[in-house]
Write a structure and sequence with these properties.
It is found in: Cytoplasm. With 169 residues, the chain is mainly β. Helix content is 3%, strand content 46%.
Length: 169
Amino acid sequence: MKKQFLECGKIVTTHGIKGEVKVQPWCDSPDFLLDFETLFLRRGETPLTVERARVQKNMVVLKIAGVDTPEAAAALRNQVLYIDRADAPVGEGEYFVQDLIDCEVFDADTGRSYGKVYDVRPTGANDVYYLRDEAGKERLVPAIPDVVLERDVDAGRIVIRPLEGLFDD
């Protein structure tokens, strides 16, 4: 099931004397966060109005309404920020990485389940899906077109064809 509120970054420190905060973005690009007028704390419970935002050295500097002093900004340090899915539409065949978490991964030829995705990590060349089956066995799957044949995040299902030797059980 898709989450309504998606993690997008973390407030890591204050910036300047006017209550701005620096955010470590958890997005493909820091620029992604510049288009949001509202971000959220506590999985969507607390809305924050963004007065202005800019990218500075791969970080996002935010000015949040009502946060006007360094002390008020410091109180937000280490808070995870969320976006509302409705504010960030994706195109056909696109998805958020968080939508892959808990998807079950099946073999295209045998139908065998290899487990569920519990993490997705970028490697530079491609992402890697981290799987764990019911017995606790972990597997890594390169997210490349030769291996990942189908992603149906609505159904919570990913179909793969492992390269020879990938899963030497």
